[in-house]
Design goal:
Length: 485
Amino acid sequence: MRTYGLFIHGREVPAASGATFSSVAPMSGEILGYAARGTEADIEAAVSSAREGFAFWSSLPPARRERILLECANAVEAYHDRLLNLLIDESGSTIVKARYELLYTASVLRAAAGEVRRLYGDTLPNEKTHRLSMVIREPVGVVVVISPFNAPLALLAKMAAFPLGAGNAVIAKPSEETPLIAVEFAKVLHEAGLPDGVFNVVTGFGSECGEPLLKHPGVNGVAFTGSTTTGVRVGQIAIQTMKRLQLELGGKNPLLALGDMDMTKAADIAAMGAFSHGGQICMSSARIIVEAPHGLAFAHALAKKAASLYLGDLRDERTAYGPLIHQRAVEKVIRHVQAARDGGGQILTGGSVHRGLVFQPTVIYNPPRLSECWAEETFGPVALVTEAASLEEMIAIANESQYGLSAGILTNDLKRGLSAARQIRCGAVHLGTHSFQSDPMAPIGGYGMSGIGRSGGKYSIEHFTELKWISVELGETPLRRAHIF
Ligand code: NAD
């Protein structure tokens, strides 16, 4: 059984304490390997490596950074199978989802390479005649990237690639559920030519490994993707040392099915939005709001689809979903389903554990809208369906949430669809499809408790660069108050 190290300054090293923890496959329960258990004692080495990496990386001409990031993308494709197999096993992904993550990872690295040459500044009009004013962009420095378990490669790559493109160095702290894929990714990037110290990985737990990183004065920025509860804590710590902060947090995403839709087709689209990766997707279509009188017909069509989803080996291309990540996740789903049932929700299909950590795709009609199942993120394969009398009521229901990450609107009526899109308070609204969409160049992030800031393309670059105003006095230095100075 392989024991992985922390990845610091271009090589794997054990944790200072020598401690390790196991990485377990959620589908089989098998131990896949051991990761180094990083703690405060390891953070100094990681930060000093990243500071050295930053000094070198930020001094390179943009064309060199662009070329290296393109090589990194090529290397992800060259090492496709090595990464794919670990991704499937460690995160319980189906082969289809794992392939998508790899495609996305290579694509995000290429998109970041493209942004390297677009670190534009400004020249400004002046109050004074003899002054030239310009604004330049500089990388913030060392950026800590803290990632969740559910898309452990794609999200880590997305959060790291754009700050790297802007000339920052990165220290990644992956989820303790998926540490090994992050170390493998770091090795691939290093083999592709990313210089020592530019991308480091410290594996370990939130409080003993993540927090000392957030507190370190040598760290300048934080990109975090994870739950809202953790994000609030991360934000509180990071702001004490004024780190540049970006938070991508949870969601309870609405999907609106308008009355003009064919409800069987709408249900097929909704099934993909709600049940992909067992619902363990931040943008999952969890609350489905159907225009009257189609609510129950839609819910039955969705239940039929959910019951027909194939569950086989994760490497079988027909398999539609896999296990939840751990027992605590299963217990949360059970609690939410129970709350919906207690409040009078009708369970049309599913509602219990299939086997191990696999929960049945579940459709609940008319759940109580005040209970935790409606208000909180379930992060499991549970679709809640409710009916509303008008478009105004659908929008009001969509907006009755502390979250505001992503929404979908199913309609062929562009005018009604666009009108709804403008009124829904979410970071993204997708017309003609479900709420789970991504693109390397799009701004991903949310309103309300779904986070702060946006990642992707130029939006990440803006976030992880400092603006500096430089002015040049072109005339005589005007000392109008010469009698004072
Ligand atoms: P989590 O909040 O439990 O953990 C996320 C990361 O934070 C892990 O690396 C964890 O080790 C680290 N962490 C935990 N406590 C910490 C602390 N005190 N200090 C520093 N780091 C700490 O989330 P999870 O269960 O891994 O992932 C699921 C959550 O992520 C869901 O809520 C989901 O909605 C969210 N998510 C959001 C997006 C988005 O784009 N908005 C994308 C994917 C996942």
